């Protein structure tokens, strides 16, 4: 390919890709051998080592199986034997940890959630409500008391208002306490009995 005077990133990626595709496997192997990092191992030696490793694993599995038989023959409890076999078979078990969702499934899930939300069926009780600060509670209660006092309907009784005013006083006190600046003496506890402590 002829390189133009102006080279952009996309063209550079294409050139690198073409160059990498042109490199043969044997060239890479030869480069690593020349570094001296890798020992020169033939393909046959790799296959023999792989075969020996597989045979070793099979032998270990057979040994474990024989051990299970020995353990269960001494104390023939079918439940223990079943549990041991289940535990040992877990290595061969292919557990799917996640399912690849197709677009149609994703759309169905989203639409189902929307329908539940519209119908009020969606349970939002799992979401934790944020804590309302005292200042907001105080303002809200003040506003409610003002609203309550403005009502002319007989269902709004004056004796009920006393309860709200009681809570308003409580909130006012809590609010003042939260705004009270601590003094340095608040961080020290007085000594009840000085004889318990050694004075240097």
Automatic annotation (TrEMBL):
Top-level taxon of origin: Eukaryota
Protein name from the UniProt record: 14730_t:CDS:1
